[in-house]
Amino acid sequence: MERRHLANIGESVPDRPMVLMVETDSYIRHFASYFLHEGGYEVNCADDGYAALDRVRLDSPALIITELMLPHLDGLALCRLLKADPATAAVPILVFSALSADVRALESGANAFIMKPIEKIALLNMVNSLVPSKLAGENS
């Protein structure tokens, strides 16, 4: 039964807020996506900062979750670019990292910071607090 559900992670489900996760580690991407899907979110992924910029413009996510250590364009620069663009400035950003860089992340425009390793309850609580309530309410 669990395997069947894992196969459905990438499927688009109407009326679910979409989260863009920017993470290079496929293991973390897989488990965080699974947790988010279980929490009522659709998840799209990017594995570097420039790919994330493209995905944000295509997908209009309700939330962006990004690691700091990304190739080509790091997570702090990604935050600054997203917050400087009027088209994406209102999208909340959650930085999650193994680095203790919460102050730097917030100074770069992130709305929140969470340390790795990822724990399902902590991740979902943080995501639920950042997703606009009108979108989150659609999952009830």
Spatial strand sequence of the major β-sheet: 2-1-3-4-5
Radius of gyration: 14 Å
- Total beta-strand segments: 5
Tally the structural domains: 1
Q: What is the oligomer described by this structure?
A: single chain
Mean pLDDT figure = 87
Percentage of residues in strands: 15-25%
Q: In percent, how helical is the residue content?
A: 40-55%
Q: In terms of structural class, how would the helical and strand content be classed?
A: alpha/beta
Measured between the Cα atoms of the first and last residue, the distance is: 23 Å
CATH superfamily: Response regulator
CATH topology: Rossmann fold
Largest sheet: 5 strands, parallel
| Shape descriptor | globular
- Secondary-structure element pattern, one letter each: HEHEHEHEHEHH
Describe the SSE topology:
Layout: H1 2-7, E1 18-22, H2 26-38, E2 42-46, H3 49-59, E3 63-66, H4 75-84, E4 93-97, H5 102-107, E5 112-115, H6 120-130, H7 133-136
Helix pairs in contact: 3-4
Characterise this structure:
By secondary structure, the protein is α/β, with parallel strands linked by helices. The protein has a single domain, classed as Rossmann fold. Helix content is 44%, strand content 16%. It is built from seven helices and five strands, in the order H-E-H-E-H-E-H-E-H-E-H-H. The protein has a five-stranded parallel sheet with strand order 2-1-3-4-5, sandwiched between helices. The radius of gyration is 14 Å and the shape is globular. The two termini are 23 Å apart. The relative contact order is 0.17.
